[in-house]
Amino acid sequence: MTTPRLFVLEDLFKFNNIVMDPLVEVYSQPFLLPKILEHPELVLTADAPDNSLMGFILGTRVEDASESFGHGKSMSWNHGHISAVAVAHDYRKLGLGTRLLTTVRDILDRQNDFYVDLFVREKNTNAIGLYESLGYVKYRWMPKFYADDHGYEMRLPLSRDVDRKSLEGIMIKKIYSFGNKLYYLLMFYIFGIIAIIIGGKLVE
Ligand SMILES: CC(C)(COP(=O)(O)OP(=O)(O)OC[C@H]1O[C@@H](n2cnc3c(N)ncnc32)[C@H](O)[C@@H]1OP(=O)(O)O)[C@@H](O)C(=O)NCCC(=O)NCCS
């Protein structure tokens, strides 16, 4: 198995084959560059034998973020965030995604962070399967988080979070079914009104 290495700025010229995927959010240079420069140890790639890139992960850290959880308790903590992870088509299902995610997780763990989180499209069941296999938990359902899809925030508590406090405010169970029903009820209502209007016009 290949060993991930630090992503360097020249790699920006070689990584389109990986990030130009409908499931990867394509970030602009002004978004990418500060993140790469701020936490270079969390931005990794892996080289293929032909010198192309096989995969890429963009990890970041959020420091002293104040957050309410559980029953209105508030806490300030450092946590990691995975902004993007992608593997080139030819190298998928070989364990590289797992390797990139576990390498970043281990670095954040050593930096004493509480948890790692990420956002994923609801329809991206392959990625959700991968995250769940690594211990990530669906924390929050985010309706219309993406222009064309709902999303989830998923979280992985790290060793410092012995009591799994980062999952305490877990909202997915409470809100998911309610939010889901409300959304479809609203759609049903809107389409019903449209159908009545169109029907009325046809009768005229
Ligand atoms: C998601 C992605 C990064 C996975 O990378 P990968 O190197 O193929 O992942 P791994 O080989 O480490 O897979 C580990 C586990 O993830 C799950 N998984 C990954 N790809 C899967 C697929 N196509 N179908 C079903 N399960 C899948 C499986 O549980 C797999 O374990 P297994 O091989 O023992 O069955 C890759 O498919 C990708 O780049 N997809 C497009 C971009 C994307 O969706 N990024 C995530 C955005 S949030």
From TrEMBL:
Keywords: Acyltransferase, Membrane, Transferase, Transmembrane, Transmembrane helix. The keyword Cytoplasm does not apply. Residues 1-159 form the N-acetyltransferase domain. Its EC number is 2.3.1.254. The chain crosses the membrane at residues 182-203. It is an enzyme of class 2 (transferase). InterPro entries: Acyl_CoA_acyltransferase, GNAT_dom, NatB_acetyltransferase_subunit. PROSITE patterns: GNAT (PS51186). GO terms for cellular component: NatB complex. GO terms for molecular function: protein N-terminal-methionine acetyltransferase activity. It catalyses: N-terminal L-methionyl-L-glutamyl-[protein] + acetyl-CoA = N-terminal N(alpha)-acetyl-L-methionyl-L-glutamyl-[protein] + CoA + H(+); N-terminal L-methionyl-L-aspartyl-[protein] + acetyl-CoA = N-terminal N(alpha)-acetyl-L-methionyl-L-aspartyl-[protein] + CoA + H(+); N-terminal L-methionyl-L-glutaminyl-[protein] + acetyl-CoA = N-terminal N(alpha)-acetyl-L-methionyl-L-glutaminyl-[protein] + CoA + H(+); N-terminal L-methionyl-L-asparaginyl-[protein] + acetyl-CoA = N-terminal N(alpha)-acetyl-L-methionyl-L-asparaginyl-[protein] + CoA + H(+). Belongs to the acetyltransferase family. ARD1 subfamily. Catalytic subunit of the NatB complex which catalyzes acetylation of the N-terminal methionine residues of peptides beginning with Met-Asp, Met-Glu, Met-Asn and Met-Gln. Proteins with cell cycle functions are overrepresented in the pool of NatB substrates. Required for maintaining the structure and function of actomyosin fibers and for proper cellular migration. Component of the N-terminal acetyltransferase B (NatB) complex which is composed of NAA20 and NAA25. This is N-alpha-acetyltransferase 20. It comes from Drosophila mauritiana.
